[in-house]
Structure formats: C-alpha cells, structure tokens
Amino acid sequence: MLIDTHCHISKDDYDDIEKIIEDDFKEVDKIIISGCSKKDIIESLDIASKNDNIYVTIGFHPDQVDEVSDEDLFFLEEKCSNDKVVGIGEIGLDYHYTNENRVKQIALFEKQL
User: Fold this and answer.
1) C-alpha–C-alpha distance, residues 68 and 30, integer Å
2) Could you tell me which residues are beta bridge partners of residue 59?
C-alpha cells in the first residue's frame, strides 16, 4: 500500500481539485492532506469527508502565528475528534524566513502540543 503522507490540496492552488485527487490515486492508495491554517483545515476536512481514502493532519503552521487566536486553538481541539484526522501537523518552529517572531512561534507550538 502506498500513502501520500503530506500534500496540500486547496482551491487556492488548483483549478480542478478532483482531477488532482484522481491523478494522485493513480499512484497511491491513500492521501493525507495537511491543513495548516483554519481555512485550509476546513477545506481539507471537507475534501476528506467526500473521499473514503483521504485523511488529514491539522495544525497551525508557524507562519500563522499572528493570525491564530485562542478560539482557533479551541476549534483545532474540537476537530481532533473527527475520524478523518490522523495527526497533528504541520506545527513546529520555522525560522527560515524570519526569527523575529521566535517567542510567539514557541508559544503557539507549545499550545498546540
């Protein structure tokens, strides 16, 4: 069995999501979409709910640090009970582009843990 363990499928990135999914399933048996923002999480869960072999990981990427509220963290916690959620990610620390928000990134990471 082959599993695409990390992909991003969203309307912002692709004109025809169904075609992307169809093409991916020519190569793999299951797909795990990584939702990294609230918008992405909602969209990824919607896609997964319509496809038996699609699952999601959810979490707020460090680049979302200035947008994430306590309400968003509660939203994340609620979504963890969804049967399509198979992991927490893409969370962590990312200083590739900047480390000016390092303290905020660490705090967001710890809250998600």
Assistant:
1) 30
2) none
> What's the pLDDT band for 75 if we cut at 50, 70, 90?
very high
Q: In this structure, what are the phi and psi dihedrals at residue 51, rounded to the nearest 5 degrees?
A: -135, 120
Whether 55 contacts 85, CB under 8 Å: yes
In whole angstroms, give the CA distance from residue 45 to residue 27.
22
Predicted confidence at residue 27, as pLDDT, reads 95
Contact 32, 6 (CB under 8 A): yes
Length of the chain: 113
pLDDT, tens only, 3-38: 999 999 998 999 999 999 999 999 999 999 999 999
Indicate whether this model's pTM tops 0.70. yes
Q: How far apart are the first and last CA of the chain?
A: 30
| CA atoms within a 13 Å half-sphere pointing along the CA-CB vector of 1 | 6
For every residue of 34-80, DSSP letters joined together read: EE-SHHHHHHHHHHHHT-TTEEEEE---GGGTTT--HHHHHHHHHHT
With contact defined as beta carbons under 8 Å apart, do 38 and 72 qualify? yes
